[in-house]
Amino acid sequence: MKKIYISMFVLSAFFFSGCADDYLDVKQTETVSTDDIELFNNDNGAKTFVTAIYSKFLDWDMSSFGWIGLASITSDDADKGSTPSDVGTDKDVLDALTYNSSNPSAESTFNANYDGINRCNQALAILPKLDKADPALRERLMGEAKFLRAFMYFTLVKCYGGVPIVDHLASIPLSAEDKAMQLTRKTAVEVYAFIEKDLNDAIAVLPNKSAYSSNEKARASKGAAYALLAKVNLYQKNWQKVVDNCNLVTGYIIVPDYAKMFRLEGENDAESIFEINGVGSVPVRGITGYSNTQGVRDSFGWGFNQPSKSLLNAYELGDVRKDATIIFRGTTLYDGREIPQIYKLNDKGEKVVDTTLNPRYNFKAYSSAYTDAWETDANIKYLRYGEVLLMKAEALNELGQTSEAIPLLNQIRRRAGLGDSPAVGQDDVRKAIWKERRVELAFEFDRFFDLVRTGQAKDAFAADKNKDFPKGKVFTVGKNELFPIPDSFIRIAEGMSEQNPGY
To answer: 352: part of which helix (H) or strand (E)?
Structure first.
């Protein structure tokens, strides 16, 4: 009987500890017969292969503790949090920028994204064979898979620089060519080109968000592909392409209430372009541990990823985004939940605030309905129209069209309850846009990468001072721009790939 091979990434024995979607997980040595494939040869069956890709974003290793550590705690927006004795495996060294090539968070993020890429490749290999599914649906699903693959490769190239481009399922037995594909790092330029191709392919077939039914609003759309392409252009400083692609992101608005975007009522709202959906009710899953690990210590969470004093000081007086982003001890939240201030007795027997506990927490990870749950209804907003306006403003300013950039900057500021920016000249407007990105997108996994791409990192970390780092943190130029490629991969690569500088 003819067999269709559905291979996992060949190195899964080294990289992957397992996947949540057992109904779609197939070990690398297993096969599915053509008779079995017939079970999926319909519209619902076709959807399952792409649903498995989205489901990966709910996993602990993809969007939770390791990713929070790698992309947020490393930035000047956040401190490790929790308690001094609880290092969260490696969150202390991430906070201090002293991690090495054996760092667990760098390894889990690398592995998780390749696991997701493998799911994309599975979908792209199998969908064309499902000839009883609607052709237009199959085409759209392949567009979603390419968007999601591009999204994961964008994460990888931001974190590690050049990485292997695994663009198809490997042969079984493994050919020399496919082994080289999996183990040889490509340049960052090549990875960006691959991302752009996937996104352009996706744009050609994806519908607008408005074409999806209400229960499918979280799926990738044409607007999401254009927005991600604009962001990819931003990181490469292709300014005119940023403007062009931002202009093609249509059908979205700036919602009037910033805070509501990050509550249940704001999920997939008119500003949202692409977000990861968490659902706390059984049997649908939330993002594993995402809310809990960042929740209020000694109340409903572990207390990691604490908003820093540096971030707190970045907000202007009257900026509504501060209280929408940060939970403060001693306050009452929008749903009536009280966050108690914790006191202790000092040497004189006086009641004083216990400063060993975090004074601040990430409000954007809070779930009102499932506060104490391990999986909640909190979402991650990865692309929204507010950022599109800021990307366009940054690109216009870099192109010398500063007068056209300023109104976009001020549109974001007005929503935040602030007056227009006093910045006029190109350099001042550049700095104003960078600052606005910080307070607008705090805890949305952009700050560390923004510091690197704009060349602000060394000075920003030196200024990030607290009781643990009274002299600030040392960002080593030529090293800390990238995270280390996992040692486990370098060993398996047997000389076909090299480590990043400094590790």
So the answer is: strand 351-353
Instruction: For the beta carbon of residue 262, count every other beta carbon within 10 angstroms.
Output: 22
Question: For 387-401, b where at least 16 C-beta lie within 10 A, e where not — what string?
Answer: bbbbbbbbbbbbeee
Q: Does pTM top 0.70 for this prediction?
A: yes
CA count, 13 A, side-chain hemisphere, 463: 11
The whole-angstrom separation of Cα 223 and Cα 221 is 5
The Cα-based distances of 189 to 162, 165, 177, 450, 498 in angstroms read 8, 12, 21, 18, 17
SS3 330: coil
pLDDT in tens, 462-493: 999 888 899 999 999 999 999 999 999 999 99
Where helices occur in 327-424 by DSSP H, the ranges are 385-398, 402-415
Q: Give residue 345's pLDDT band: very low, low, confident or very high (50, 70, 90).
A: confident
How would residue 360 be classed by pLDDT, with cut points 50, 70 and 90?
Answer: very high
Rg (CA), the chain: 23
3-state helix, strand, coil in the chain (%, to 5): 50, 10, 45
CB 181 within 8 A of CB 165: yes
pLDDT the model gives residue 65: 98
The secondary structure of 455-498 as a DSSP string is: T-HHHHHHT---SS-TT-----TTTTTSPPPPHHHHHHHTTSS-
